[in-house]
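Supplementary Data S3. Sequence and structure tokens for construct A.
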Amino acid sequence: MNKPWKKRGQVSIEFMIVLGIVLTIFIILGYIVYRNYVKTSDLKVYIYGVRLANHIADNINTINAVGEGHSTSFSLPPSLYGNRGYSVSFYENSSTVYVVGTSFSRGGGAVTFSSPISTANINCLLGECNMGCNTSRVEQCIAVNRSLDIRLVKYQGGIYMTQENNVMQASSEGSISPFTGEGDVTVGSIPSFVEVGEDWNVMYVHHNRLDDTVSLVISLNITSGDAAEYNIYDMVGEVLEVQSNEADPQNPEFSLSRPLEGAWNNDLGGLGDVDGAVLKFRDGFHLCIESGSGTMTSSDWKVVSSDGSSMLLDKEEDVCLAYP
């Protein structure tokens, strides 16, 4: 006669075997489902990446086919499929745009998508081009971590990627046209329509037709303050020369002896004693000036245009300027 405890032991063993088989089936099914999810997700990343590379190339090729001075705008999404981050790269002497993202498989390794473009003369003047994703000196890389509105400009035979407007603040933005002339300007070269005789601070862009260089002129005249301070950041562009009219010309506050990014301070004189700096770039620039210090809180700031118009800046907000 079989004993009851033997039957219970046999049932337990059979139950464990069945449970093991069921768990094995679930594990196998789960792995198959996961692999299909990864493959599907990687396929979507691929589709997004290819479309984005073609989208960028189409906009570049379109503006490159038109005449000098024309521009167009387009947008970059904040991420690829599945909130996967990405970057956009251009290489010297390479007529190709590269979009580099990450895959769901292979431990999230990098995947690259590319599309041909009609020119290798690409110049990025966006603040995001200065974010450290460049791997070599021949690379221009845009690290994308938010939606970007980009303006493409056909300028001096090349394509320039810059911000949507010349002047941008959080609450307002606008476009200005540069002053032009044959030769460089000085800190004291004040546009004739600026009302000198009261507290004023102006910035404007000057294009030298002789060498096709571009300068950002910062001219200050504050009777009520002792100094003007401005913190420069996110600067892009090749600086050729810096001009400042400090009392000690051998030790000017603005100079090429240190990186231009950072805090600068100009001692100011009396009424009519113009101070400031001229930052001369090879062909274009982008930079931002922090608000909340020095002149930005003590007196009005204006960015003036060659057509006589001006944009009054909000002293409580950073301002980003670019040209072209």
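Construct B, processed identically:
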Amino acid sequence: MSGPKTTRDPTLKAQRAARDRLARLERQAKARAEAVEVSDGVAETVALSRARGQAIAEPAGARRGPRAKPYRRQTGLEFLAGRGRIDAEARAAGERYGSAYRRVKLEKAIPSTLGLQVRGEFVTPALEAVLAHAEGTDLARRKLREFRARLWRQNDLVAACDLICGEEKTPREVAGSEREAGRLEAVLKVALDILASSPGR
């Protein structure tokens, strides 16, 4: 006499295990396909950014897949220093200029691709914090004016520092062509040499 099959039936157990295995394989295949799509999208974005002249730093030990490391956009100064086109003193002078420039414009440096910012409720800042911030911005404004005075307020020198040091763009990204990028880079080198050699930097 045969009754209804119970969960102890080896055939049902084997069928359930096979279904679970197929479902797991399907999830894994879907995750792999999504990872490839994301990786291809990132590669396309990086290629387009490089075509526009942006410098993109390859992640150390880069690999494709679900655990791929993030790319990071390089600033113009990082790009030039990394290729040995400016020395450490010139880069430091450019970074000081850029820091003052961005503080006056109330902007931050370029974030990485993982620079996610969690936003919460608005909290009214303390008066001391507001005053300290205002003093810091005023100091940055005076420093920027002083840096520009050292450059004799020459439009080309100031514009090169504003774009490469302040806006953190590469010469190629600003100029659009290799020839103009080379000219802009030469102007920037002169400006950074002046800033680096000025007393009271």
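The mean pLDDT is 85. The chain is about 65% helix and 5% strand.
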